[in-house]
Amino acid sequence: MTGGIKAIIFDLGNVLIDFDHRIAAKKISKLSGKSMDEIFMLFFDSPLTGLFEEGKISAQDFFLKVKEMLGLKITFEEFIPVWNGIFFLSEKNHAVYKMVQQLRDRYRILLLSNINILHFAYIKEQFLVFEPFHHVVTSFDLKMRKPDPEIYQKALALLGTKAEETFYTDDRPELVSAAKQLGIRGFVFEGKEQLKKDLLSVGVKVGLDAGK
Questions:
Q1: Where are the beta strands (DSSP E) in the chain?
Q2: Is 18 helix (H, G, I), strand (E, B) or coil?
Q3: Is there a contact between 163 and 156 (Cβ–Cβ < 8 Å)?
Q4: How confident is the prediction for the chain on average, in pLDDT?
Q5: Domain check: are 36 and 74 in the same one?
Q6: Cβ distance 24 to 85 under 8 Å?
Q7: What is the pLDDT of residue 45?
Q8: 184-191: long-range contacts at Cβ-Cβ below 8 A with a sequence spacing of 24 or more?
Q9: Taking the CB of residue 104, how many other CB atoms lie within 10 A of it?
């Protein structure tokens, strides 16, 4: 490998902001008569949600499909806060955010997330997690999701760096593996202390005050 790290890519979910899909599944279960597990699989591990994250169906169309499949008797306006109310900030998230703030002056910083438009708009309105980033790349905007190689390549193009000059952290091993196949220096996110060690292993120093 030649050259050092010039850019850092962060994942969003479970890195900069935590979430629990079962919060929404539990609320919808009370409204639909379906089990939490059934709703969980439909919402968060289904082709329908994949299409929504890729921006290939609108928020309204997504809701209408969910409403039909679950027999819901609520409006789109009533659905939105239930769908969005799964996010919260942990001490870990605050620590990573501090790292991003410190690193942005020395490196190009990019956020790369598989996310739908409703969740993105909600997080942008309610939290500050996007503010330190030079670039924010979302699946719904690009019409593709990780681990599609092209989404990583588009991130690199925005950063103006080569794969080997780019550090990437994500909590999902399969997404890190896909990035590493392109030559990106990928590491599975396992908490703030491990992130510091991973950064240091490629020559990126984070001050002692970061990540506290």
A1: 7-10, 18-19, 87-88, 108-113, 135-138, 166-170, 185-188
A2: strand
A3: yes
A4: 94
A5: yes
A6: yes
A7: 75
A8: 184/9, 184/152, 184/156, 185/5, 189/11, 189/14, 189/15, 191/92
A9: 15
Q: In terms of C-beta density within 10 A (0-12 exposed, 13-18 middle, 19 or more buried), how is residue 152 classed?
A: buried
At 121, which amino acid appears? A
Q: Which residues on adjacent β-strands are paired with residue 110?
A: 9, 135
Report in angstroms the alpha-carbon separations of 58 from 73, 91, 116, 169, 189.
20, 34, 10, 29, 31
- In which band, very low, low, confident or very high, does the pLDDT at 211 lie, cut at 50, 70 and 90? very low
Pairwise pLDDT comparison (207 vs 192), residue with the higher score = 192
Segment 41-93, tens digit of pLDDT: 888 878 999 999 999 999 999 999 999 999 999 999 999 999 999 999 999 99
- Judge if 194 and 108 occupy the same domain: yes
**98: domain CATH number?**
3.40.50.1000
Closest CA to 94 of 51, 129, 143, 46: 129
Q: Are 95 and 36 in contact (CB under 8 A)?
A: no
206 assigned to some structural domain: no
Q: How many helices (H) and strands (E) does the chain have?
A: 11, 7
